[in-house]
Structure formats: structure tokens, C-alpha cells
Amino acid sequence: MKDDKTEDQILDAAEKIFQRKGMDGARMQEIANEAGINKAMLHYYYRTKRFLFEAVFSKAFSLIAPEINRVVNDDTELFEKIRKFTHSYIDFIQKHPYLPNFIIQELNRDSDFIKILQEKKGFPDFRNFRAQVEKEVRDGNIRPIKAEQLFIHLLSLNIFPFLAAPLFKGFLKLDDKTYKAMMEERKEEISDLLIKYLKNE
Amino acid sequence: MKDDKTEDQILDAAEKIFQRKGMDGARMQEIANEAGINKAMLHYYYRTKRFLFEAVFSKAFSLIAPEINRVVNDDTELFEKIRKFTHSYIDFIQKHPYLPNFIIQELNRDSDFIKILQEKKGFPDFRNFRAQVEKEVRDGNIRPIKAEQLFIHLLSLNIFPFLAAPLFKGFLKLDDKTYKAMMEERKEEISDLLIKYLKNE
DNA sequence: GTCTATAGAAGGATAGAC
DNA sequence: GTCTATCCTTCTATAGAC
């Protein structure tokens, strides 16, 4: 079982609170309440707030990393890859709506976090994707483009609409339901945009 | 002069601190130090931390709003508009690097903020842009696309790379200088992507 | 391992002199 | 308007009983 042990109950509770409120906004007491456990236990298992936070952050990142690796470390054909990533990422994020904001926010808050993550195994390695894009360009299958720019396009188009959901809902005057439906539509929209552009079609 | 009055000195200092650390991470003492002034003055002029924060947030939003209005409330021809927005937004953000993260973060933290902003004059009105895109589609000048999706594409491609700069620098193993150069390149990359797609060219 | 109680520090806010 | 001093609450963290 996942929640057998107090340590895991704490981590689950901390996840909820930290992802909603961030490192600075979260309170140890709140996490303890959420875990249905005493505040002293948090320190017993994780020593400090910072260590607990880092455990949560690492776990969050290890959820995202495989998604990224589907792009950079996978030998699917390029268009298929774009299509699959876009579809699966948007499904993934519907399940973890707080994740992108949490990651982005804390990386901007503490610039050392990314260095810690880079050391870990499973950290996405971009080289395969670069090679793949360069080959497609060389073979004349796609319009000339830098792999980095395509990668940034792909992630921006997929991630930002969730990060900026309150903003877009405000601008476009959409309710939650309509906005969610629009995110579903984007699976096709994004694939279509990138693939037709690359194919020069 | 801008900094004649204490009230403005405080607002400037608060801007710096809040934009770097957010509402929860910022300390009144830190803002006072930054302003070279006493902590009691902050309360004298702005009563509470929250009011001071709201003043900063409103000002930040009033800096971004005109940028958005260049897209939604301006009768420039569509392709020209995409090109101009992309170029000017990327310049704008190099001058205010903390702004997008600040806005997004606080809108996610407090979902009521957007409602307050919607009331204010100058809040972007999407209707003109929708009409413009619909007309271009009807006239057969561009590929069929919903105005909302195009709007989200445009903002995502422009804003996210700054928001996620630490992440992309980590993934792509780029230093600040190289990344900045890449953001310059994106002015053309983004325009090219959207316009060629729309023109079906 | 788990709890209660509390230390110790920090932060927002105010009183009151000038 | 501006400052110093201080109140009071909140928060992280630990001590110590069971």
C-alpha cells in the first residue's frame, strides 16, 4: 500500500499543500492537519520544512521528467512524436493541474534547484532530439529549423495554456467547462500547427 | 520627478521585492530597507501588506495590458499584427523580466484577482480580435482557425519561454547569453511559424 | 513512533514622541 | 510625515513524557 506508513502520508499531504501554496505560502501546521497527524512528526521524518519541500519537489519533477523524455529520448518518428506528446501531455496535466505552476514557480524562486535536478538520473538529455531534427532537415523532410526552437515551441504551446488558465479565462471570458473543452481541442490544434508548418504544407 | 515622494519610493521598492519573491515570500522589512526608509512608513501609506501588494499588482498589470491590447484592440492587418506583437513583446519583457512570472503566479494563488482586474478600464476586450480573425477566415485569406486558439498560440509562444527560462536553460544546457540570443531569434521564428501556417504556405 | 507543550525567532502592525 | 520602540501573533523547531 501507498499510505501504510506515516512518512508517505506526510509526503502526500505536503504535496497537496506545497503545490497549491508554494514553499513560502505553505504552513507546517496545515500539512500536519492535511495528513491527520501531529506537527512534530513532520520534523521527525523530514527534519526541516526545506527538506520536506525538496522531497515534494523532486517527486513532482520525477513525474514530469518522463513526459519530457518522450520527446527527447524516444525514437518515434518526429511527426508521430509531436502528435503523441501533445495528446498525452494534455491528458497528463488534467490529472495534475497544479504541477506546471509549482515547478515553474519554484525554479524561478530558487535558481539552484535546477542544478540539483540536473545531477539526477532520468534528467532529460536533449541530444537525441537534436540529432533527430537535424536529420529530418538534412533529408529535406521538414523545413529548416533549430531543434531548440522546435522544442520550445512544443512545450510552450502545451504547457502555458494551463499555467495561464486564470488569465485566459479572464481575457476570453470563459467558464471552467468551456476552457477545458478548448484544451481538448488543442490536442489537434497544436499538432496541426507544428506539423503543417514543418511539412510546409 | 518620479521618486520625489515617499509614497513612490515605497511603491518602487515594493515592486522589486514582490516581483522577485511574491506576496508570501516578501518581507515588509525588506521592502523598507530597499526603499531606504522606515517600516512604519509602509503602513502609514498603504495600511497593510495586502494593500501594498495590490498596488504593485495593479501597476504591473497596467504595464502588461497595453501589450495585450496591441493584439486585441488595434486595427492593424493580422499578419502585421502578429509580427509586431512578437517583436515588441520580446523587447518589452527583456526590460521587465520578472513581470510574467509575477502575474501568473499571483493569479494562480488568488483566483479573485482576475475579477478585480476585469472591472478596471483598459482591461483587454477580445471581441475585436475575434471579429478580425473570423473575417480573414471568411474571406479565405487564412486557414480556418478559432480566434481563441490563435490568441493562445500567440501568447504561449511569446510568454512561456521567459517564464520557463530556468527550465529550458537546464534542459538545453545553455548559458544566459546564449539563451538571450535565442529569444532574439524567436521574434522571427514565432512570426514565421504562425504566419506560414495561417497562409497555408 | 507518537503526542503535548513550549522555546525562540520573525513578521505584521501600531502607539506615541518629535 | 517620520522615527523608535514595542505589542501580539504566527511559525518553525525541539524537548521530553509515554
TrEMBL record, chains A, B:
Residues 27-46 bind DNA. PROSITE patterns: HTH_TETR_2. The chain crosses the membrane at residues 150-172. Keywords: DNA-binding, Membrane, Transmembrane, Transmembrane helix. It comes from the Bacteria. Residues 4-64 form the HTH tetR-type domain. It holds the Pfam family TetR_N. InterPro entries: Homeodomain-like_sf, HTH-type_TetR-like_transc_reg, HTH_TetR, Tet_transcr_reg_TetR-rel_C_sf. This is TetR/AcrR family transcriptional regulator.
